[in-house]
Amino acid sequence: MTTTHAYDALVIGGGGGGLRAAIELSERCRTAVISKLYPTRSHTGAAQGGVCAALGNVEEDSPEWHAFDTVKGGDYLVDQPAALLMTEEAVEAIYQLERWGLPFNRTSDGRIDQRRFGGHTRNHGEAPVRRACYAADRTGHMILQTLYQQCVKRDVRFFNEFYCLDLLRDDAGITVGIVAFELATGELHVFRAKAVVFATGGYGRMFRVTSNAHALTGDGPSVVWRRGIPLEDMEMFQFHPTGLARLGVLLSEAARGEGGIVLNSEGERFMERYAPTIKDLAPRDMVSRAIYQEIKEGRGGGPAGDQVYLDISHLDPKVIEEKLPDITEFARIYLKVEPMEEPVPIQPTAHYAMGGIPTDTDGRVVVGADEDVVPGLYAVGECACVSVHGANRLGTNSLLDLVVFGRRAGDDAARYVREADLATPSERPEQPTLELLDGILGRTTGDNAGEIRKELQDNMFELAFVVRSDESLTKMQQIIASLRDRYERVAITDKGARYNTDLMETVELGYLLDCADALVAGALVRTESRGAHFREDHPLRDDANWLKHTLAYREPDGSIRIEYKAVKMGPYVPMERKY
Amino acid sequence: MVTAAEVLDSSDQERPTTDTIPLTVRVRRFNPEVSEDSWWDEWTVRCDPLERLVEVLHQIKWHHDGTLSFRRSCAHGICGSDAMLINGRNQLACKVLAQDVSPRVTIEPIRGLSVLKDLIVDMEPFMDGYRSILPYLISDSGEPEKERRQSPEDRHRYDDTTKCILCAACTTSCPVFWGDDGYVGPAAIVNAHRFIFDSRDEAGRERMKILSEKTGVFRCRTTFNCTDACPRGIEVTKAIQEVKRAILFERF
Hints:
By secondary structure, chain A is α/β, with parallel strands linked by helices. Helix content of chain A is 35%, strand content 20%.
């Protein structure tokens, strides 16, 4: 049984980017949000520390300084016009959130309070600046709630627990809709639409230690990749330095913004050696690499010597209670450590995909070196690559990305659907999806998806994490090939129609394998170190050869072809990245 | 349909296994495709004492019974997907550690909402309650050019109720909610509180009118189950009392 629906625009994903786009769209055309989770379960809600904009509420600031920091933080792989646009529009985007009711923390005179965050500086690197607007350490939660509230107000149509499994394009490549699987019933739905906005989030679940939710399996990138769209800069994956040891649960950079420091097993504040000017507030890639180096040189702690420590015990307890309550609770609950009294064991955790579906600054998906627009197809947020984060995203810029480009994509899509016709999908457009699902459901014996997932996660953590090399990546590529092989024979025990999460998780594993494959392919060809991508066999940045984006295409035979695209430059000339 | 108890390996072999502990997990199952009645299944696993219960459920699902179904996402208490009745108390499975419940834990779906499969319940009636209280800022007094001003003191008045993650642990622990189809329940009132006490909002009276109806706040019998159940530590009963007082004295 397949049900067919028709809308002007579809948004795939109910996190911050998707909801922001939906707000823009729903006022202007028939819109539906297709989300595999209830929207308020989305991972935007896990973002903690803040969202940056040069409001200048507590000290002098300017959008241009913010743009400079974003470009330098991204190790110059950022498309500079996009960064200038984002930081300029940031100010109005924050005011808009406030008008929609977001409960920001306030200054004594009632304005939005701002605090320090990694890599955000005054006047091109002079000193840390207070730029992050925040709501305690649950800023993402408040953004998600506020945007969802605005969707309730506008009576936006949601299809919750519907899982998008295919993108429909006609012979000319024009977007005509999607196919989704309804979790509650197991039925397939064809959604016809003129415009489709992908906002499915990241794919951190390919790594064993990650801050990401179980749901973050690269669904959007993989679905479009299988339909001929390239993926950009997939090798650029951020490892956040302060994940709870062993678990990877995020401890916000806000802890350091409020004065927390990172210590090695000798109690040394080692960031003073790596980033003498801004120390613990250096960008995430640098802190994660410094931690790796400390551990390598024997100054790691914990049972396996693979942890360092985040110390906030010297902070005023009132600051901790009011500004960092959630992360304090995480340490207490999950590690049984009291942060007010002792340092918290941490290790780098897979956190954020800078790469993804290539788009322009209107969220339109673009392919190839010449950036040909795919009519009717959009992507925003972590699943997209604008690229405003380049090789390393600055803290808080992900939330900003969602609201700025969510709005822009929604706005452009609303204009597009006014001119476009609702095209007819081919005969039985759900057929490939049916075959995908029946293939998994039909096998009674075969490989276990849980084992394949565990091997993927363990190996990605060992071989494609903070430090990489030709050797480790080549090995990883072979492992992925063999895991893909086993995935073709995967069998599950749940054969039912109702809430078959066994089936859903197995489809998700296929998407994770796709994204891991693209990530490793990009990492292997990029024989330099830039931002989050560190190759110990090529430890330096190489602008002469590598100041360019990678585009990974999936070939019909399953192999990957890499093309390149120029970085859009602007006022900032690449310099050595020192802090 | 009780399965034989089985002993699994440690849930994560990378970790030191010297100090794993045994945990018998008893789950109330339901799947109308299989049977009209619910049944119990039981597994015994060895796991790290600090293992989260939601990850123990994953190990059972991934390595023993793929049909075991539950919602989960973030696994650290912020998305609100995995509220369950754990040893008789509503909790998030990702905020309960194995050592806190070992050697035996009983898991059932949260109460008062129809069970759809195993630990998955129909969230729609709960979300209807939430939507009924106008859960969005309403202000007609013109939009300022920049931000509205709000003093830290005014911001503090509704701080606690902004923490709600809509997990339904409070509402489905409430005896009045179990017995009365119409009661909006604690979570909806918490979210009303969040706006009623926000100095920027201008629709407090409208919300209080909704909550003073027979399905509203006066159904609350102050049993405090909701406060005990809230995984975010929100003082739910206090918030409900504040809304009641605001309605009675028209002061907020």
